[in-house]
């Protein structure tokens, strides 16, 4: 799902099997996940609380019976320090944004904040204080938004929340928008490239994005040089479920076990 400070959070598609793993030390810990009857998890986030020196997993669930939503969304937070889960109050003003039948995308940890892709905007979650914030409205007014196409997941661009959009005019142009310190969206630059990328997944730093072309696969894109380069995978890998930005570290958590 995500990587943070050398730790990788792994999950199955239903978010009921969750594991924190350090590929460098070959140590891991499988979390004991709350399992309430009829609950369906719709979101999973992973990040670091630098004040409490704690790694945390955020999980959003809803109760579903006979294919219908029967409850408001509930937030569950795991603390690696406490090795426990606790319920987090979801404010009334963001419940509708999180009440969706689809899984909600959760962005990377950006300065101690996770951002969830809710209806009508992004829902921030403060990992330090364990609280949800006000909905961050997406870059464009509704009448303009309808003429734009979102082309990225939630990105961390040089420490700022960022999104990539494509204009829907006669000349389609990809543009990177960032959220500044006062909550305003600013167009940073256009992304001009020799090969169109259908989706942007990560900003890797050093001028490089990682994107996907539905025909030619994953590509590195250098926004300064405006060049693309194929991301090679071992020949035996025929399907890639997800990609994360990973930095090696020796971080270890209480309860880590060694891989066999």
Number of strands: 22
Average pLDDT works out at 83
Q: Roughly how many Å is the radius of gyration? A: 19 Å
Shape: globular
Approximately what portion of the residues adopt beta-strand conformation?
over 45%
Report the biggest beta sheet as strand number plus sense, adding barrel if it closes.
Answer: 5 strands, antiparallel
Overview features:
mainly beta; 2 helices; about 260 residues; single chain
Could you explain the architecture of this structure?
This protein is mostly beta strands. It is 4% helix and 46% strand. It contains two helices and 22 strands. The protein has helices at residues 92-98, 142-145; strands at 2-4, 7-11, 18-22, 27-30, 39-49, 54-65, 68-69, 74-79, 84-88, 113-118, 121-126, 131-132, 148-150, 155-157, 160-167, 174-179, 185-191, 199-205, 208-213, 217-222, 227-230, 257-258. It has a five-stranded antiparallel beta sheet, with no helix packed on it. Strands 5, 6, 7, 8 and 9 form a five-stranded antiparallel beta sheet that branches. Strands 13, 14, 15, 16 and 17 form a five-stranded antiparallel beta sheet that branches. It is globular and about 50 Å long.
How are the SSEs placed, and which strands pair?
Layout: E1 2-4, E2 7-11, E3 18-22, E4 27-30, E5 39-49, E6 54-65, E7 68-69, E8 74-79, E9 84-88, H1 92-98, E10 113-118, E11 121-126, E12 131-132, H2 142-145, E13 148-150, E14 155-157, E15 160-167, E16 174-179, E17 185-191, E18 199-205, E19 208-213, E20 217-222, E21 227-230, E22 257-258
Antiparallel strand pairs: 1-2, 2-3, 3-4, 4-22, 5-6, 6-7, 6-8, 8-9, 10-11, 11-12, 13-15, 14-15, 15-16, 16-17, 18-19, 19-20, 20-21
């Amino acid at each position: 799902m995500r990587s943070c400070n050398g730790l990788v959070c792994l999950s199955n598609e239903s978010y009921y099997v969750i594991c924190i793993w350090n590929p460098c030390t070959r140590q891991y810990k499988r979390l004991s996940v709350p399992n309430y009857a009829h609950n369906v998890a719709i979101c999973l986030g992973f990040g670091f609380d630098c004040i409490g020196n704690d790694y945390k997993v955020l999980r959003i669930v809803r109760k579903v019976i006979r294919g219908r939503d029967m409850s408001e969304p509930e937030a569950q937070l795991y603390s690696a320090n406490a090795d426990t889960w606790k319920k987090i109050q979801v404010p009334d003003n963001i419940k509708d944004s999180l009440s969706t039948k689809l899984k909600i995308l959760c962005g990377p940890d950006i300065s101690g904040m996770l951002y969830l892709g809710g209806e009508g905007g992004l829902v921030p979650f403060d990992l330090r204080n364990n609280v949800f914030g006000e909905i961050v409205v997406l870059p464009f007014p509704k009448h303009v938004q309808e003429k734009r196409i979102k082309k990225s997941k939630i990105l961390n661009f040089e420490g700022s929340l960022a999104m990539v959009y494509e204009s829907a005019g006669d000349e389609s142009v990809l543009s990177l928008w960032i959220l500044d310190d006062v909550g305003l969206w600013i167009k940073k630059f256009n992304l001009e490239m020799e090969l169109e990328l259908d989706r942007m997944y990560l900003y890797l730093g050093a001028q490089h994005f990682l994107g996907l072309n539905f025909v030619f696969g994953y590509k590195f894109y250098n926004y300064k040089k405006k060049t693309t380069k194929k991301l090679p995978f071992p020949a035996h890998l025929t399907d890639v479920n997800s990609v994360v930005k990973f930095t090696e570290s020796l971080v270890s958590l209480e309860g880590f076990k060694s891989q066999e």
